[in-house]
């Protein structure tokens, strides 16, 4: 069953307009819900909003948006005042321009929604806009007011409907210069690069999102179920069990990775013993080897 629309209004391209609904394309719900509780009683803890000066609890009816114009100087803004400055994009997504989808930097993509026609009368106009964009290979750019904020939205054909993705503004995206400018280029040998390329080739497969599951949540659910049956405190994993073990150099890590992909003898040899026999061997990339050469443990 389809979820309720987060927004309803009109999609407009010049003089062509249709009634549409905006539906969430992703879900943030989890199988396990956790709450803050009182350790002594096991009861849930309530959060109370209090006045920062008087310390008194503020009722919901007395809570209002306050915009800061200077330090500790807040101007109250009522919902009625916000309604008075409502923009056209509050009720209508007007497609202002078109661009190639690949021209949009992935960092600007925020949250996806499905955009669908809301009634039979609107389906023909909706299909005209959708099919025209599909034939031209273009995505539309418009604006929408959602959650009391105007956002730029990228609209592109998606199956029988449209995919509308909220975009971040330019000042919300950080420049990578500060993070990458001091990064050394490195000097990998041809052999190292060849081994890495072979490893990539052996691990290449079609993307299948069903293969990726939240193993942390699965482990957390197992922990909670276990504690529900046995209330006693669970024992933490020992330091020996949690240690990552062997430290080898980069070339050795690449070779062993290739062997493990082949299902060769390297996978049958105990990593801990192998590390012990080469303990005196210098390591050039200790941090990277732990992630490369250690096999992930299955969640308990």
Count of runs of 4 or more consecutive helical residues: 9
Strand arrangement in the largest pleated sheet: 5-1-2-7-10-9-8-6
Radius of gyration, Cα only, in angstroms? 28 Å
Unreliable spans are: 234-247, 265-300
For the biggest sheet, the summary is: 8 strands, mixed
Mean pLDDT rating = 81
- The SS-based structural class is alpha+beta
Strand content: 15-25%
Helical amount among residues, as a percent range? 25-40%
Characteristics of this structure?
single chain; 9 helices; 29% helix; 300 residues; eight-stranded mixed β-sheet; alpha+beta; disordered C terminus; two-stranded antiparallel sheet; 10 strands
Describe this structure in words.
- This protein is α+β, with helices and mostly antiparallel strands and 300 residues long.
- 29% of the residues lie in helices and 22% in strands.
- The chain has 9 helices and 10 strands.
- The strands form 2 sheets. It has an 8-stranded mixed β-sheet with strand order 5-1-2-7-10-9-8-6, with helices on one face. Strands 3-4 form a two-stranded antiparallel ribbon.
- Helix 4 (190-203) runs parallel beside helix 7.
- The longest helix has 17 residues, at 120-136.
């Amino acid at each position: 069953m389809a979820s309720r629309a987060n927004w309803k209004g009109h999609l407009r391209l010049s003089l062509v307009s249709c009634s549409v609904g905006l539906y969430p394309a992703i879900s943030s719900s989890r199988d396990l819900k956790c709450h803050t509780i009182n350790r002594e009683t096991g009861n849930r803890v309530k959060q109370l909003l209090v006045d920062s000066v008087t310390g008194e609890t503020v009722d919901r009816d007395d809570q209002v948006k306050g915009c800061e114009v200077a330090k500790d100087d807040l101007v109250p803004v009522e919902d009625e005042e916000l309604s008075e400055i409502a923009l056209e994009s509050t009720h209508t997504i007007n497609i202002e321009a078109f661009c190639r989808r690949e021209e949009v930097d992935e960092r600007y993509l925020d949250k996806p929604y499905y955009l669908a026609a809301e009634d039979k009368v609107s389906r023909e106009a909706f299909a005209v806009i959708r099919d025209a964009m599909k034939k031209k290979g273009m995505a539309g750019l418009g604006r929408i007011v959602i959650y009391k904020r105007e956002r730029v939205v990228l609209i592109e054909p998606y199956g029988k409907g449209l995919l509308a993705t909220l975009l971040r503004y330019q000042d919300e995206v950080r420049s990578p210069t500060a993070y990458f400018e001091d990064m050394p280029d490195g000097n990998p040998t041809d052999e190292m690069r060849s081994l890495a390329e072979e490893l990539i080739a052996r691990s290449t497969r079609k993307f299948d999102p069903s293969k990726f599951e939240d193993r942390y949540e699965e482990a957390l659910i197992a922990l909670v179920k276990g504690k529900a049956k046995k209330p006693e405190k669970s024992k933490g994993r020992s330091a020996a069990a949690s240690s990552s073990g062997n430290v080898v150099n980069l070339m050795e890590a690449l070779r062993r990775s290739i062997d493990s992909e082949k299902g060769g003898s390297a996978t049958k040899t105990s990593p801990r013993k192998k590390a012990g026999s080469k303990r005196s061997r210098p390591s050039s990339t200790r941090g990277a080897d732990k992630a490369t050469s250690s096999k992930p443990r299955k969640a308990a």
